[in-house]
User: Fold this.
Amino acid sequence: MKPDYLVNFDTRQLPQDYWDYVIIGSGIAGLYAAYMASSIGKKVVVITKQAVDNSNTDKAQGGIAAALGTSDSPELHYDDTLMAGAGLCDESAVKILVNEGPGRVRELIEIGARFDQKGGELALTKEGAHSRRRILHASGDATGAEIQRALASRIREDKNVLVLENHQAVDLLVHDDTCYGILVYDRSAEGLHVYRGAGVILATGGLGMLYEHNTNPEVATGDGIAIAYRAGAEVMDMEFIQFHPTVLSLPGAPRFLISEAVRGEGAYLRNRYGDRFMVRCHDLAELAPRNVVVRAILSEMANTASEKVFLDLSHMSPDLVRERFPNILKTCAKYGLDITRDPVPVAPAAHYMMGGVKTNLNGETSIRGLYACGEAACLGVHGANRLASNSLLDGLVFGHRIVECVKKYKIGRPKKQIEFACDWLDSGPVGYNKIRTGLRTVMNQNVGPVRTGEGLKKAIEFFNKYSYINKHEATSPPDMEVRNMLEVGSLIAESALMRTESRGGHYRLDYPDSRDSWRKHLILRK
Ligand code: SIN
Assistant:
């Protein structure tokens, strides 16, 4: 069978470069892996689709979780992560996350990330399903932007690292289950380039753009997962998408995240009649696990015939609100809302992908020489529902482990210089723009936080209708994205149809209960 590619090409006719590591993506996982690799003298190229700070990391508000408080411990963090993960967390991965996490966060501080302090100590907040205050934050509610700033400025002055912005990963070059490099499209020069490396690391982030309503930047189109799957890598847990409960829902305003830390500091959720409904739904009320809060909000919206519920901060100290949430306060003010006083209209939106390219605890995928970390990867650390603020930590801990693993096993360069080519794709026009719009509607209607077998079959019909496109070239970056979105959308819908139960972020009206027989992962391979 011929390999699956997006474009016709011949590596013998393309410019080629060799690096120790080729890292795709410039969020926390990619930049931290680059920093680590450089610190052991490796030469690294970081390929990123737009500007370096166009990442989910940069948008992260609430913070980064680590057991650093005096009343906290990795054991408590472990318990909370497992509880949120709804029976599907890989326990070894969680142990690594919570035990190695504090050290990695300290390294981040050494690199220059400035987290908020209180009385000379790190200020720690709380979020849903955390039994302790353990979330570090920066500039109140701009934690991701501070981490991105610190890492990017460190990387910029690093002579071992070259960052290439406006470069889009196209396809992996894989032969006999070994990865030799990656085909990349230079958006400025409008041409293809081959980057070869002893290790190719996918750190491309999530796929929120598959949904009409999401919290992600526009680059989040699932590229890494699609590229890896096309090349024959295993993907896992694709049915588990996390919807964030509280995203600004105001006509004319963008879907802007209202951090879970707002509830962590004491905000209430109320329905249109002012009823504080979460106290009826869960012992932890507004701080229940995210999937629980999302479903409670959706049911409240349906019962009150409303498209939103409201976050109420009016009982909180206005000074505390201003100090903790300056970014949210400023954004909401643009739309005429004073969050210290006015109810803030919110609704759930797609936020985070628990599934992704399957890796082991060292970030190795099922293809030799191909690694994955961060949101694009899946080693089961988040189970069926990620604990709030564990994602930045995941990127740090497992990005670091890839480099450690390669160092330990002294994985060298692939011996042979194999060339790759494809000349079998048709070049006729395809209406990719229309498909992108249709796909987002189908995902919203049928593969959202509440699913049914019937809806999932409709989504699969949509994907099957467009499967002929795999025989066509996708030569422009937006077209390549649509191909990737079709690939991952179809994996999500297929996995969700297979899982005939409800668990964590995957809820089926026709199978509303969790089943012990489903305490297992779905692993797909082309
Ligand atoms: C938030 O600030 O609510 C997002 C944190 C996260 O997704 O972990």
